[in-house]
Write a structure and sequence with these properties.
Length: 250
């Protein structure tokens, strides 16, 4: 089956009998701080090592034929971190973009963002938009970076959009069903989410893709994010292939 033949595995549209390579994988990259603390290093060193793990994982995702990889890089709650750490993370994103954009473009990676990255200020926001524009024709792998993202905010914004349509008289309230709400979300164009991986042993979703996770497989691994790499991704894909997906059926 070629990539363009692949069928979207929306809930209810598949028997779920066997699982192949997941089409859409999302990762909660956790454990950078602990990785650094164990080495007596500042948290920024953990984030820097985390950016290297992003490179390795992305390369392996391309190799594995994953269609969409969504990474939780900065949550709407991460603003609670110290100004220094927020500034370090912004600096790292700027650095990563500068260093990686040529390779991302060459490798056929299409870069997108969810959340509200404009909150990072015009300099970074302009760079992010330029990088997305430069890679927009690529179709080998879609890399979605969640920046200043919160799932509840995404759902609330979708509800607001629909409410505005009702107010404008262009929508009947009775038409607001699961599909309508899903289509009003910022991430509506992404394929159905198949697998969420969280590193560092924590077992929660932390306001990440809550709506989309309804039928996703969840995988919690003990590896700290900076130690994650292509082999760790391949292991995760193997676990996924062993899962039976039923989407509410039997
Ligand atoms: C969680 O570890 C990690 C983050 C909040 C930031 C993720 C950022 C990166 C991996 C680097 C840059 C990203 C890209 C896309 C280039 P933590 O700090 O919460 O770790 P802890 O729980 O051990 O303290």
């Amino acid at each position: 089956m070629t990539r363009s033949d692949k069928v979207d595995t929306a809930p209810g549209e598949t028997s779920g009998a066997s699982t192949d390579t997941p089409r859409h994988v999302a990762i909660i990259m956790d454990g950078n701080g602990r990785w650094a603390a164990r080495r007596g290093l500042p948290r920024a060193a953990g984030h820097k090592a985390g950016a290297e793990a992003v490179r390795k994982t992305l390369r392996a995702a391309v190799e594995a034929g994953i269609d969409t990889l969504t990474l939780y890089a900065f949550s709407s709650e991460n603003w609670r971190r110290s100004d220094e750490e927020v500034s370090d993370l912004k600096g790292l994103m700027r650095y990563y973009l500068e260093r990686e954009i040529d390779e991302l473009a060459r490798e056929g990676v299409k870069l997108e963002f969810i959340g509200d990255p404009s909150a990072f200020g015009p300099d970074l926001w302009n760079r992010l938009q330029a990088a997305a524009a430069r890679t927009e024709e690529n179709d080998r792998l879609r890399l979605v970076v969640a920046l200043n993202y919160g799932s509840r905010a995404e759902v609330a914004a979708a509800a607001q959009r629909l409410a505005e349509e009702v107010k404008a008289g262009t929508r009947d309230p009775a038409s607001i069903d699961e599909a309508a709400l899903g289509e009003a979300m910022q991430s509506a164009h992404l394929p159905a989410l198949d697998l969420i991986i969280r590193t560092s042993g924590e077992q929660r979703l932390s306001n990440f893709l809550l709506w989309q996770a309804a039928y996703a497989e969840l995988l919690f691994v003990d590896t700290l994010w900076p130690d994650f790499d292509g082999a760790a991704l391949d292991d995760a894909l193997e676990v996924f292939r062993g899962r039976q997906r039923r989407f509410g059926g039997r």
